[in-house]
Design brief:
InterPro entries: MFS (IPR011701), MFS_dom (IPR020846), MFS_trans_sf (IPR036259), Sugar_transport-like (IPR052528). The chain has about 475 residues and is mainly α. It has 2 domains: about 1-195, MFS general substrate transporter like domains (Growth Hormone, Chain: A), CATH 1.20.1250; about 210-410 and about 425-445, Growth Hormone, Chain: A (Up-down Bundle), CATH 1.20.1250. About 70% of the residues lie in helices and about 5% in strands. It has a two-stranded antiparallel ribbon. Helix 1 runs parallel beside helix 8, helix 5 (about 70-85) packs antiparallel against helix 7 (about 100-125) and helix 13 (about 280-290) packs antiparallel against helix 17. The radius of gyration is 24 Å and the shape is globular.
Amino acid sequence: MAKYAKTRFLSILEAGSYNAFFIGTQGFIFTTLALYFNASPLFISIMTSFPIIAQMFQIFSSRINQFIGSKKKSLIINAFISRTLFVLLPIFIFFDVRSEYIMLIIILLFSFFGTFVGNTWTVLIRSVVPFEQRGKYFGLRNIFASITGIIMMYLYSMFLEFPNFKTGLLLVTSFMAFFSVLSALLLMKHEFPEESEKNHSVNLNIFSPFKDRNFKNFLLFMFVWSFAIEFARPYFAYYEVAILNINYQFLGNMGIITSVISIFLYLFYGIVADRFGSKNVLSLGILLSTFSPLMYFLMNTTNYRSIELLNAIFAAFAWSAINLAIFNLLLEISKEPSENYIAANSFVAGIAAIFGSLSGGFLANHLENIEIHFMGDPYHGIQLIFIIGFILRIISVILLTEVEAMEKPIRYKGIFSPEAALFKRREINFPFDLFRRNRRKIKKSELPPSVDVENEEKNQVVTNDNKEDKE
């Protein structure tokens, strides 16, 4: 694997350049671009979900790779087609051509060809990064991507505050175009093992993973999770920009806070994922992500500053864990041929994204001009979407507990625990598995003579695994 150190390094650079461009297709920056091209809430919802919806077409990745000749060639060709499309955006803005269909077509083609890039890259990088190093490696990769995201988030938000709004958008889209092309050029320099680059005659069958009980549980989780995200995701930024009219520079600063915190968390979560399991990290991330829709439901023109700050901090802890662990968990529970499992996952996520974006979009169109009063307090209709999103995220994290993956209990010294003197340390599987473990009371014969048996019998409950720890 040492011979592929260059590829792993280039992959980190590619992640940084890609994120510098991709961040312009997310959040308040993309919403601002979409509104400039006269997009409605429904169009915004559909466009932001296109990258997930397009993943359904990953089932054709193997045939496309065979048609082109090799996985690497397919990776490069699709990357150039999908990413160079954004060179058109500054041209349309310069000539003052506005239509929501322009954005729709660009995002559609970017998502369609980009999905083949994602599928092929996932299969290839799996052969370059050893399993035991994936948490740490992808943590470092995400750190570098976050650094470039911080820089470009600051610049993009500053450009959008220019007195000449058109000039600001021209600068934003020009930088996006530059970094999109650069990321494709970096992919050209990647090297992969010959056996992984060859197009083996894999008969792709996305239905075979459904026979795997554990992976079927994972797909059920992915469906609900993807639906929950795509249902509400476009309206966080829409609520900020179109309804509350929050300053772009302020939103950019909040994004920078999230990215700065994420830099440290990616490395931390990478180490934790390698040691205690990606499922534990993912469960924690999703649980923390449930706070965001609740905070947006309570946000208004008088308190948005403090809530945005709290949300920026929670988002860092939540999404750095999710972005790192969900990919690792997919690789961990996939079996060979992995293309079947990756394609099945993408297909299910795409179906969920279609239903999520359409249902969220239609609901948002009806709620756009509605104001609701609850106990005398006014709420915008869009805020109802956040409550539904909160409930769906809770359901998804519960479904995740049914997925079987590598999980090691997180141990800590019980300094303030009454059990500390007896057991020295305790263990917990978070956040829900604690309640599923088999418990038993300690027998009197198992206690040291010096222990007050009557008190210990009333207070001590330990897991079966503690016996292994003492042995």
